[in-house]
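Example 3.
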Amino acid sequence: MSARPATAASDRSAGDGRASSPLERRACEVTSSRASGGYRIFAARDATGPMPRAGQFYMLSSARGWGGARGRPHLPRAFSVARAGEAAGGIELEFLAEAVGPGTARLTTLEPGEELLVTGPLGRPFSRPRELAPGAAGAILVGGGIGIAPLAILRHELARAAVPQRILLGFRDRRHSGGVEELFGCEEVRLASEDGHAGHRGYVTDLLTVLLEGDDAGSAAVYACGPPAMLEVVRSLCGERGVAAELAMEAPMACGFGSCFGCAMPLAGGGYMRLCVDGPVVRADLVETALVAGSGH
Amino acid sequence: MGATAGVDLTTEICGIELAHPVLNGSGTFDAIAARRAFGDEIIARFPFSAFVSKTITPEPRAGNPPPRLYETPSGMINSIGLPNKGLEGFLSEDLPALAGLPVPLCVSVMATSADGFRRLVDGVGARDEVAAIELNVSCPNVESGLIVGEQPSEVERLMEAIRPLTAKPVIVKLTPNVADPAPIALAAQDAGADAVSLINTVRALALDPVTQEPWLGGGGGGLSGPAIRALALDQVRRVAAAVSIPIIGMGGIESGADALGFLAAGASAVAVGTATFREPMAAERIRSELALARAPATASGRDSRPEKAPDGTTALWTSS
């Protein structure tokens, strides 16, 4: 870690290692945007914010053209950071996006030199394996589709902490496998694809099932991000086997800092948590289900 | 903000001195959660001149099942369902934390019976940390089956039930889901309300684009954001023409110019809600813009409010 004031900011936060967001929504210059499969990877330079922790997210909007001809998008969109690194003039933040609605459509057409409006980093980051279970020495990362983004920054964080990792990534088809090459590169990654174009033909959770039957199970913590159906399988697989797991989840969110109460996630013991401040990374045994109406939209 | 440093934005509402006229709308800012996200700086640079709590009810509520949000053109529909810790939980857990805020605290309360409201006003009103109480009347009275805020008689009865219980200022939060909010505001004033705040969200519906069934877990919801600003401005002006108690105006305010409009329409203070979701420090920006807008007028001694016609209205068709 550098000597940025960022580090000090993260020290005074909520006790789970999260970095505190500066108060201001700030303009960050877009430095690159490139296609990757059916997705887009774009980067922006954050001159004043702290270094985020893996699993944290930013509320994003564009300075220009947010609102569009039909009045949408209106609210900012929550994005997990996929990569963050020191660069000249600030921290380079990278995001992985797919155009599915008016907000993501605008963000995927950002051009270098444009201003990206940013609030963050926000939310609870991933824990270390030993924080999840005393016997957990290694990590199994399970990503699906666009959900591979927060695992990309997580693998770097875990590597710096010398935590052994297995990485399992799954995709519907080639179009939805964007980001793998760029974000995971030469890393040893096991792939699954529903159309069989890469790796195991089937689901990434098939690969996880095999791993959890091996010797890894007792000494690993699982970290997952992906579509709700995938997360639900991970949750139940780990629950049945008593394997500690954290899920990076998604819910419609207006503010990102605990004020709108929109991102309700049902708790296993009844009631709801706010995914923005109690998540987006949550312990799998805390949630009732990962199949929540409205999530994944 | 050198140009606005000398601009006096101090405001007084029901005897409470405020540093400037920009508050938060109830349920649009959680100071305790914001501190977890932003650290202590959010307290040191608190953007609102008074803090209005999320509505509390006599008993704890978990809130509505998700989804709770739906984005619309220039706005959003929410169906949150008033999750809160209940009166006891609020008094023991949240109030001590909120008492540390550098601004006066207004507690928003709601119940479905006069008895429930009495318990809330009694419990909240007894606490020194609380400067004012806001009654959220956009709820049904289970005894009459009527939405309290939609009936002058219901508002009058509620005010009469709680007025003797506290000497603290009582603000009635009006619903916009009526043909004319003025008679409701007048009933509140006549029964002893110290101020009214308006507008609450506008009843709205979002459909799942595939199934055409209601999208939100709670069924319907409430619309907020710039989409309702013109409607809110009209209701503020109508209420201002009818009552003499102060008005806290809100509904889609995003800029100092928007705030100026509400003040011109008769509000003594304004509140910001959905704009904060988009931009955490929106209220601070709006206050700065307001100061900037007022700076020249103050320097030359002019009143920044537009002149009203003798009938108390402002001309409708002055510009296109």
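DSSP finds eight helices and 16 strands in chain A. Residues 1-13 of chain A have pLDDT under 50 and may be disordered.
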